[in-house]
């Protein structure tokens, strides 16, 4: 048995190795009484939630989640999670905690588990924020600006 969750609702899915399930059924979890539609095939399981969200779990344990607002999230068996938003923003969260965000305007941001960040702006500027709070801006023209709590220097 594996448990699938959409952050608010949890559903237990029995693999076909342990129990034969009908091709389609409606479940009513006793805790909240919500009807959840579950459809199974040899290659995947699809769950439709009452709020319009839809989750598809493939045979290789890849989870495809479509939110009612149009966002999609794919979680791979290796832990990589990719979320696409309707405004064009894409977020990739790696198993090691590194988060990479591509905004709709082309700006890219990487957030590391230690709190450091790198921001790649569309004009070629790179803004590095270190875990100690110091910052380095590298401009497209080659100028550099170093910032700390105590000073700001243009190099």
TrEMBL record:
Superkingdom field: Eukaryota
Q: Which residues form the Centromere protein J C-terminal domain?
A: 66-91, 113-147
Q: Which PANTHER family match?
A: SPINDLE ASSEMBLY ABNORMAL 4 (PTHR10331:SF6), T COMPLEX PROTEIN 10 (PTHR10331)
Family per similarity comment:
Belongs to the TCP10 family.
Output this protein's name: Centromere protein J C-terminal domain-containing protein
Q: What organism does the UniProt record list as the source? A: Medioppia subpectinata
